[in-house]
């Protein structure tokens, strides 16, 4: 059976011109978007259970714009004024510049890496005397704390936001030829929203080994998987599948 309809379990890209739209035009397939998961901020009452005081920290390690937003949100809810001499260590330049939404950039001590936690190694090691807080979600990638531990610095994870399953009841049923998933949470949302879902002829495309593992554990079949040596992106993997089915 050919693939004519695809549901991507993520928000629709802001740009109308993107790899998925190119795919839709080239192979005449309908591609819809729907986020199967969303992020909710942890409230102050729940955060207090972690027994973490923002005032104990002199440096904050920011791994995403989401982390920036929720760090300052929680500071406000906790009635904590972030001091002017707070040091910010950002995973990338883009995250560093995003701080301008909350602080006067040129007047703060801001450091950033190229794109990964490992890139921050040298600068973090130069500030070993600092006590770091790491704003994160409830499903923080293991590589982040593992990498920070290797640097020999003192840090504390602070769960400020969490990933939850979205309500998909308005979809009534998942009637697409192919479903595309990027995280184990997306699979959990599928099962929660559609407990009677059976795959049958529906194709499932996954990105990343942890997502693939979640699909297999749920008893579903993987038809398309990325990244691979021949298909580093999801759209490339799907295109190769479509070519093979023509």
Describe this structure in words.
- With 246 residues, the chain is of the alpha/beta class.
- The chain has two domains: 108 residues, Rossmann fold; 124 residues, Rossmann fold, CATH 3.40.50.10090.
- The chain contains nine helices and eleven strands.
- It has a six-stranded mixed beta sheet. Strands 2-1-9-10-11 form a five-stranded parallel beta sheet, sandwiched between helices.
- Helix 6 links the parallel strand 7 and strand 8.
- The longest helix has 13 residues.
Encode the helix/strand succession as letters: EHEEHEHEHEHEHEEHEHEH
CATH topology of the largest domain: Rossmann fold
Distance between the termini: 10 Å
* Overall number of strands: 11
CATH class of the largest domain: Alpha Beta
**Could you report the average pLDDT, rounded to the nearest whole number?**
92
Structural class: alpha/beta
Low-confidence stretches: none
Give the helix proportion (percent range): 25-40%
What is the tally of helical segments?
9
Strand order of the largest sheet: 3-8-7-4-5-6
| Main β-sheet description | 6 strands, mixed
**Computed CA radius of gyration, to the nearest angstrom:** 21 Å
Number of domains: 2
CATH architecture of the largest domain: 3-Layer(aba) Sandwich
What portion of the residues fall into strands of 2 or more residues? 15-25%
Shape: elongated
């Amino acid at each position: 059976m050919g693939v004519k309809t695809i549901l991507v379990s993520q928000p629709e890209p802001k740009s109308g011109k993107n790899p998925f739209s190119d795919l839709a035009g080239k192979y005449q397939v309908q591609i819809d978007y729907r986020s199967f998961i969303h992020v909710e901020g942890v409230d102050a009452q729940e955060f207090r259970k972690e027994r973490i005081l923002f005032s104990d920290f002199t440096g904050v390690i920011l791994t995403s714009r989401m982390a920036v937003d929720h760090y300052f949100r929680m500071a406000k809810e906790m009635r904590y004024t972030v001091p002017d001499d707070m040091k910010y260590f950002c995973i990338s330049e883009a995250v560093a510049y995003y701080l301008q939404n909350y602080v006067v950039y040129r007047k703060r001590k801001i450091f950033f890496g190229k794109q990964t936690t490992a890139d921050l190694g040298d600068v973090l090691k130069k500030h070993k005397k600092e006590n770091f807080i790491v704003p994160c979600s409830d499903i923080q990638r293991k590589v982040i704390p593992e990498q920070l531990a290797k640097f020999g610095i003192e840090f504390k994870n602070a769960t400020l936001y969490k990933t939850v399953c979205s309500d998909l009841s308005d979809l009534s049923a998942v009637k697409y030829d192919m479903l595309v998933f990027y995280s184990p949470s997306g699979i959990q949302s599928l099962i929660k929203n559609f407990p009677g879902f059976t795959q049958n002829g529906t194709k499932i495309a996954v990105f990343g080994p942890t997502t693939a593992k979640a699909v297999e554990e749920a008893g579903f079949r993987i038809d398309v998987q990325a990244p691979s040596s021949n298909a580093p992106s999801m759209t490339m993997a799907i295109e190769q599948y479509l070519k093979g089915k023509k």
